[in-house]
Amino acid sequence: MTSFQPAEVPGEAPPADSVSPRDSTPAAPTSVARLNQTIRGFIERWGSVWVEGEITSWNVRAGAVYARLKDLQGDAQISIRIWSSARGRMPADLKVGDHVVACVKADYYVRGGDFTFQVSSMKHVGLGEQLERLERLRAALRAEGLFDPARKKPLPFLPHCIGLITGERSDAEKDVHRNAELRWPQVRFRTEYAAVQGDRCVPETLAALARLDADPEVDVIVIARGGGDPQTLLGFSDERLLRAVAAARTPVVSAIGHENDRPLLDDVADLRASTPTDAAKRVVPDVGEQRAIVAQLRARMATRLSHRIAHDVAQLEQLRSRPVLRTPEHMIRTRTQDVWQLVTRGRELVARRIEQGALRTAELRASLRALSPAATLARGYAIAHTDGGVIVRDAAQAPAGTRLVVTLERGSVAATSTGEVAEGGPHPDPSATSEAGS
């Protein structure tokens, strides 16, 4: 921290109304007002100095901001006051925890004896370089595809065990536990504590992430901490941690800071929650909501089932009201006459066909009888044929000695030819030359 100028500048006389130790005695002490005026006179001779420190309090009041700056290496602190006229020239995002440099001038309030410093200028330290480095890292990781929604793993609907990485006895841990248990009382946690800022933040968070990712019972991992200035959240933009989260097999939820805090972990994680409370609401379902959904679905199912049954009953009643089902025997009676008529007609057709067939058969039998050799044989004629079955049509076919078979109307006789007989001559007695026939 830069030191002030000496209280007295050589060659300059003290104020006329000032008091020195030799001017006051027990018999003639000085007044409090004169002492304060003397102190103020010396302080007013000090010039403005630039001082570096961390904002530990920040109280905005009408017309001014009252704050305190703490030394970065020790416990020394100073009180500062920023008038509204000077506040307009400073960054609007100044807050507790910021690392700043300020131009201050000592001021002593005579009436109250209060010592403070007026601030004429204040700015962040190294914030621009850090933001530029983070933007370069953001662009590189986006080019590699680590921010792509397609690579993000979905969260389970109801995790059996939630892994939680947070600071020990932190408000973030209480918020996650309280809100998750309110939504689902049976939820289980496996908590790994790690530093959430400083040099130990990244290595401890990496180790905790590795342990939880290796546990098969852990279904989702939540990395949570409360809000803070960008510098305190730098650990959650570290490239080592970002790549480890991207490579994790278990889905990871980022719940860092408040709504406006956006470390790079939010872009790499599988789900970004605005606060630890929001993470608890996003990770586990609300048992009340799920019961309401189940009740709603059951009611809808019962309603649709009732409508379906009522519809089917109405359809059945409509079918039963039809005449064919109301009096099914009517259909049989109406068809009986049709069947009787068809049977009668069938019988008539069959009888007619039989009669026609009989007449046709008689005609064919008469024609066949007229053409049959039997009729000729009945008139006294006979048929002679050789042993080979050849009918003798010419006398030359049966020379003398030829054995013949003579077929009569009734039976046949065997005979032997005596040769051809002259036309008009006497016929030989067949019995003279015939053999016994059958």
TrEMBL record:
Q: Which InterPro entries match?
A: Exonuc_VII_L (IPR003753), Exonuc_VII_lsu_C (IPR020579), OB-fold_nuc-bd_dom (IPR025824)
Residues spanning the membrane: none
List the GO terms this entry assigns under cellular component, sorted alphabetically: cytoplasm; exodeoxyribonuclease VII complex
Q: What class of enzyme is it?
A: hydrolase
* EC number annotated for this UniProt entry: 3.1.11.6
Protein localization: Cytoplasm
Region of interest (Disordered), residue spans: 1-30, 415-438
Where is each Exonuclease VII large subunit C-terminal domain found?
A: 146-356
* Annotated catalysed reactions: Exonucleolytic cleavage in either 5'- to 3'- or 3'- to 5'-direction to yield nucleoside 5'-phosphates
Q: Which GO terms describe its molecular function?
A: exodeoxyribonuclease VII activity; nucleic acid binding
Q: Which GO terms describe its biological process?
A: DNA catabolic process
Q: Which keywords appear in this protein's UniProt record, sorted alphabetically? A: Cytoplasm, Exonuclease, Hydrolase, Nuclease
What the record says about family reads: Belongs to the XseA family.
Q: Which HAMAP family match?
A: Exonuc_7_L (MF_00378)
Tell me, in a sentence or two, what this protein's role is: Bidirectionally degrades single-stranded DNA into large acid-insoluble oligonucleotides, which are then degraded further into small acid-soluble oligonucleotides.
* Quaternary context: Heterooligomer composed of large and small subunits.
Report what the protein is called: Exodeoxyribonuclease 7 large subunit
What is the source species?
Microbacterium album
